[in-house]
Amino acid sequence: MSATLLKVTGLKVAYGGIQAVKGVDFEVREGELVTLIGSNGAGKTTTMKAITGTLPLSGGDIEYLGQSIRGKGAWDLVRQGLAMVPEGRGVFTRMTITENLQMGAYIRTDKPEIAADIDKIFGIFPRLKERKDQLAGTMSGGEQQMLAMGRALMSRPKVLLLDEPSMGLSPIMVDKIFEVVREVYAQGVTVLLVEQNASRALQIADRGYVMESGLITMSGEAKQMLSDPKVRAAYLGE
Ligand code: ATP
């Protein structure tokens, strides 16, 4: 079995007195595409923010590459190969597409390879190439999502965390985003995908976890979960 890259144990996160994440365990192994699904307010984004050091833990631990990353900031984590595309994308709106991609490589010093990687990103997202000098703030939601993913890939991550990449996108754009997630994974990047679109997420994932009211309530092989009547009734609208 491949190595565990990310291991979350007994994770608790609170907002003031309110526990949003109440003791969650899960892991992501090298080369896997794992999805965390669940309805609104289940605590998925809170979990992602705890992993990337944006929110403090009130209990439990998070290990990356076998070491606790509790208290580490996003900068440190990106340097260690853990990159995140946040919900809402967070592109630099007053910079061009090319400049946004260059920002994604801020931890790197290998200039010629950075240029080659930008070309690779343009290969995955021809739309970004067509618009490379356009200001990111003037792009559509789907284009900004592509840019946010491209920017994260510029750090050459080992693990890519994606928080609801399909949110607010048109059906065609959703197709494209899921295709690209799959492609990134096929190129060897380990992926943790948070999604409300459970059906699509389970279709491309190896394994899945269901989160409900701050707890993991189900987990398993993605294919088995897709055919599980309980999952189908609760999350796949059947
Ligand atoms: P969604 O898919 O709607 O983003 P989610 O599963 O990502 O849902 P979270 O955003 O993690 O859920 O929210 C978990 C719980 O924490 C919710 O009850 C939410 O209202 C609460 N919460 C989130 N952010 C804050 C905050 N800044 N202050 C107080 N409560 C918060």
TrEMBL record:
GO terms for biological process: L-amino acid transport. Keywords: Amino-acid transport, ATP-binding, Cell membrane, Membrane, Nucleotide-binding, Transport. InterPro entries: AAA+_ATPase (IPR003593), ABC_branched_ATPase_LivF/BraG (IPR030660), ABC_transporter-like_ATP-bd (IPR003439), ABC_transporter-like_CS (IPR017871), BCAA_Transport_ATP-bd_LivF (IPR052156), P-loop_NTPase (IPR027417). SUPFAM superfamilies: P-loop containing nucleoside triphosphate hydrolases. One of its GO terms (molecular function) is ATP hydrolysis activity. SMART domains: AAA. This is ATP-binding cassette domain-containing protein. It comes from Caenimonas koreensis DSM 17982.
